[in-house]
């Protein structure tokens, strides 16, 4: 194979350093132009086999060794070596043009060995060859905290361990060594590919500069620059934590509501069988029931406005009943103003024969038409609560007729399909999900927006909210205990809820009825998180965390910082750890701005939080220091170049003195 191109400078670059500092990986990354994934880095070890043969055997490796640096055609020949200190590397060092002296930034001993062992060895065999000090694996400055990286080591034997912060060599420490030895300094990572091409390009420059000194007649080397300064490596910001929401039990809760039928307020009589149920569920699931019960309420209202003595005849909790009734009337009037009341003839519906209120028991009794058999009614009721049917005892024709009367369109579609397919259901879970989504929407409308059929009122700090005991008890164990046990609340129709505002309670109800939470403002979320935590509703806490993060992301940057600072500690207290993590991450990433904006509030944080912020601030202090240093070096270099140009005689061989030391000084 043709090894050289016309007018090509061959540069032999020898790579030395302790075992496992990353020499072979670095060479492979350059020679094969490959970035290495974390899994590859952690899983496989590339044995040191790289040698000059590679250029003879592999055409693409040879071609990748060709590079144009400062208008000079170069073929870069990389020589890998063994890291064992006692081995003879004379063969490798022979006729080398540049040496890369590598250490690993997670191994301070490997840096110490550069000074104590490697540099003396290099100088013994190549007294005048330019040398670059290279800090390999600089991704570990941020990877040591990476979850995937840490997980790998957690699953391993105790013999291998992850890099710790205390293992890391910082750029200024390495630069001190480079300064002491008079070397250029670069950092690389094959994981991020940071500095890989840069270090070899500058190694070539160093080699060509040295060559220019010896062969001053070679005009093609005229434009070769000094090795360039390496801009510091800025680690990526820590990834934003994602808020995860725990699984929903909404379907299961509604199934329990169907099976237990606690706090029911209606009895459906079909033939000789009575089914207890909840008006709010029936009204949400069936338009026919909605109209029927709406009729009942409008009749109640007419009665209550014409007969003022009625309220007092309702029993012991007359005050409570009054406020319940008022709550219902308020919403009903609001609705009535924009929607015509259903006409009385609706009761002519073939599904219903009669409706009557049993005031003493607070129950409504609905006698169903003869066309609705008890078995079909049971199937329809089960569907209304759970979105499922009992296939073992299903009479398709009867159930279909009942579903038609009760206007259960989704059930109808299912039954028609079953009739066509000979009795099998296509996709039960999909149907259940569709029904659940429908029920959520309707419950929001009937129970929360219209406030109908409520049997309990919560007196809050700034108003009142009506609700349904059955739903609260089904969705929340604390509420269930409150309504079911010997507590005063189990009988009361009005419950005082001090310390909670309407805004907060309404969001809680939204969650309980629809399993979701509408937008929550970051400024008003703490009470809601406190309430969710107090009522042992982890999914509500998660949903609120998610909504608050959405709100925080919408805010102006400085406002987000203010809110994060304000929320960080209180939300932790209420077990909203994901939100606390998000706020902490945001504060870490905006630490500099935070220090400028709110130094006082920052000092008021718990010392542990302050320490965490200092430790995890981004960009890290070492980077900022490195960046300042780099800027200073750039200015200095610029000045030196101008000075060198002015004092240059114009002849290459005499200009060396003025540029040799400054070339290094920028790195040191
Ligand atoms: N994180 C990280 N690991 C690296 C990097 N380079 C090499 N390594 C790992 O360090 C170990 C030693 O690498 P190797 O190149 O064989 O070292 P050598 O003995 O000096 O040739 C291997 O497990 C590599 O996967 C790097 O840039 N980043
Ligand atoms: Mg090796």
UniProtKB/TrEMBL annotation:
SMART domains: BTB (SM00225), RAB (SM00175), RAS (SM00173), RHO (SM00174). One of its GO terms (biological process) is melanization defense response. Keywords: GTP-binding, Nucleotide-binding, Repeat. InterPro entries: BTB/POZ_dom (IPR000210), P-loop_NTPase (IPR027417), SKP1/BTB/POZ_sf (IPR011333), Small_GTPase (IPR001806), Small_GTPase_Rho (IPR003578). Residues 264-393, 454-521 form the BTB domain. One of its GO terms (molecular function) is GTP binding. PROSITE patterns: BTB, RAB, RAS, RHO. The keyword Repeat applies. It comes from the Eukaryota. GO terms for cellular component: endosome membrane. This is BTB domain-containing protein.
């Amino acid at each position: 194979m043709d090894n050289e191109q016309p007018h090509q400078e061959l540069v032999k670059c020898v790579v030395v350093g302790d075992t496992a500092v990353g020499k072979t990986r670095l060479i492979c990354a350059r020679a094969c132009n490959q970035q290495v994934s974390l899994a590859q880095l952690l899983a496989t070890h590339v044995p040191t086999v790289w040698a000059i043969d590679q250029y003879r055997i592999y055409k693409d490796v040879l071609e990748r060794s060709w590079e144009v640096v400062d208008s000079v055609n170069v073929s870069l020949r990389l020589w890998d070596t063994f890291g064992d200190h006692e081995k003879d590397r004379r063969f490798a060092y022979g006729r080398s043009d540049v040496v890369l002296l590598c250490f690993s930034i997670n191994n301070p001993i490997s840096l110490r060995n550069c000074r104590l062992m490697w540099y003396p060895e290099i100088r013994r065999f190549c007294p005048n060859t330019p040398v670059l000090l290279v800090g390999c694996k600089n991704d570990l400055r941020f990877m040591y905290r990476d979850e995937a990286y840490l997980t790998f080591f957690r699953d391993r034997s105790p013999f291998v361990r992850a890099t710790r912060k205390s293992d890391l060599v910082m750029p200024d420490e390495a630069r001190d060594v480079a300064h002491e030895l008079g070397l250029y300094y670069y950092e690389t990572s094959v994981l991020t590919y940071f500095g890989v091409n840069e270090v070899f390009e500058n190694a070539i420059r160093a080699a060509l500069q040295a060559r220019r000194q010896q062969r001053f007649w070679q005009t093609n080397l005229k434009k070769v620059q000094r090795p360039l300064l390496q801009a510091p490596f800025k680690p990526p910001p820590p990834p934003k934590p994602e808020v995860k929401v725990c699984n929903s039990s909404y379907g299961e809760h509604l199934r329990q509501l169907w099976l237990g039928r606690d706090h029911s307020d209606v009895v459906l009589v079909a033939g000789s069988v009575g089914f207890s149920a909840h008006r709010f569920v029936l009204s949400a699931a069936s338009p026919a029931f909605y109209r029927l019960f709406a009729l009942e309420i409008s009749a109640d209202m007419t009665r209550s406005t014409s007969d003022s003595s009625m309220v007092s005849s309702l029993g012991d909790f007359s005050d409570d009943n009054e406020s319940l009734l008022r709550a219902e009337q308020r919403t009903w009037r609001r609705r009535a103003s924009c929607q015509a009341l259903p006409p009385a003839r609706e009761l002519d519906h073939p599904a219903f024969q009669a409706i009557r209120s049993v005031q003493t028991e607070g129950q409504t009794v609905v006698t169903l038409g003869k066309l609705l058999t008890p078995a079909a009614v049971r199937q329809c009721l089960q569907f209304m609560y759970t979105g499922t049917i009992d296939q073992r005892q299903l009479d398709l024709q009867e159930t279909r007729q009942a579903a038609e009367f009760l206007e259960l369109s989704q059930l109808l579609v299912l039954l028609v399909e079953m009739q066509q397919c000979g009795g099998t259901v296509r996709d039960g879970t999909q149907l259940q999900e569709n029904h659940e989504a429908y029920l959520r929407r309707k419950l929001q409308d009937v129970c929360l927006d219209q406030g109908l059929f409520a049997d309990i009122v919560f007196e809050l700090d700034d108003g009142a909210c009506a609700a349904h005991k059955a739903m609260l008890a089904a969705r929340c164990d604390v509420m269930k205990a409150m309504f079911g046990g010997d507590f005063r609340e189990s009988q009361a129709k009005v419950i005082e809820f001090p310390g909670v505002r309407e805004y907060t309670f309404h969001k809680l109800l939204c969650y309980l009825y629809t399993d979701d939470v509408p937008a929550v403002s970051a400024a008003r979320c703490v009470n809601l998180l406190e309430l969710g935590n107090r009522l042992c509703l982890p999914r509500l806490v998660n949903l609120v965390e998610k909504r608050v993060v959405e709100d925080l992301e919408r805010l102006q940057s400085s406002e987000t910082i203010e809110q994060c600072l304000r929320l960080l500690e209180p939300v932790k207290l209420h077990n909203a750890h994901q939100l606390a993590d998000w706020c902490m991450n945001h504060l870490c990433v905006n630490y500099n701005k935070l220090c400028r904006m709110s130094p006082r509030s920052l000092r008021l944080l718990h010392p542990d939080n302050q320490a965490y912020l200092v430790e995890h601030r981004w960009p890290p202090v070492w980077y900022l220091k490195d960046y300042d240093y780099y800027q200073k070096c750039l200015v200095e270099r610029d000045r030196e170049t101008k000075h060198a140009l002015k004092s240059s005689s114009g002849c290459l061989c005499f200009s060396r003195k003025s540029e040799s030391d400054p070339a290094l000084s920028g790195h040191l």
